[in-house]
Specification:
- This protein has 162 residues and is an all-alpha fold.
- Helices cover 65% and strands 0% of the residues.
- It contains 8 helices and no strands.
């Protein structure tokens, strides 16, 4: 069980009631046969959704990693993995790429700045990103008091959106 799930349990929520369960295993062969090529054109709405998720993940990840005043190499690696998994095969607009660069350089990002990105996401999306963010905080040397406070802050934010 991830750090976020344990936190949600501690504040009195059963995470499973919100549908946070492991996805069933995929048939890789069937998926490869039906998958569209990487150069597919996606709708503007889908591109906005991907961009919003990527920016929110980057902002929250930076906030989590920087909360204790030290961003380790392991935390940077976890952030890269999280953001890279969202980008996937889609080319993001130049302005989104620029904003991602700005976020990655903002080691003093505030919770208010993070919330402006989180507010664009659905509660389901927020629940899905919670464990990935927790992974950032435990990447280097466990969870300290500042990181635990961020976990609680994010858990309360998600709870307020559900």
């Amino acid at each position: 069980m991830g750090l976020f799930n344990r936190m949600m349990d501690r504040i009195g929520n059963d995470v499973d009631e919100f549908g946070v369960a492991a996805a069933p295993a995929e048939d890789v062969t069937a998926k490869a046969e039906t998958e569209k090529p990487a150069a597919q054109v996606i709708s503007p709405e889908k591109l906005i959704d991907i961009s919003d998720r990527c920016l929110a993940t980057a902002a929250l990840s930076m906030y989590c990693a920087a909360c204790d005043g030290n961003i380790s190499i392991e935390e940077y690696m976890e952030m890269d993995i999280n953001i890279g998994s969202i980008k996937g095969k889609n080319k993001l607009p130049a302005e989104v790429e620029k904003e991602l660069d700005e976020i990655s350089q903002n080691h003093n990002i505030t919770w208010g700045e993070v919330v402006k990105y989180l507010d664009k996401l659905s509660p389901d999306t927020l629940m899905k990103m919670s464990d990935a963010v927790a992974d950032i905080m435990v990447a280097s040397d466990g969870v300290n008091d500042a990181e635990q406070a961020v976990v609680e802050q994010f858990a309360n934010y998600v709870k307020s959106r559900i």
